[in-house]
Amino acid sequence: MYDRPPVKHWSAGRVTLVGDAAHPMLPYLAQGAAMAIEDAAVLAQRLSETPDNPAPAMRLYERQRQGRTARAQRAAQRNGTIYHMGGAAALLRTVALLAMGGGRLIDRYDWLYGWKPG
Q: pTM of this prediction?
């Protein structure tokens, strides 16, 4: 599996990237397809605002999405590191996860699951 750091530009003129083409993610957050769907929703909104001039709409879409997708990429990388711990680190991870309980684990992803297009 491969990923790459977030890239600075996804768009050039009247062409832009969405989903894994723009921001590939490791599967440890299970958000690759979700980010692509969000990209499409935001891009469609921006394009509908300037149907005769797509280039500025694409640049705005890119600016709106970069922070969120970069955060998801970093979270997936972090989860991968945590999930693949071994030895004593794995034992400590498991104890910490049990101590946190399920509710607190999911709460830390409110930024992810509470997103609304706008």
A: 0.85
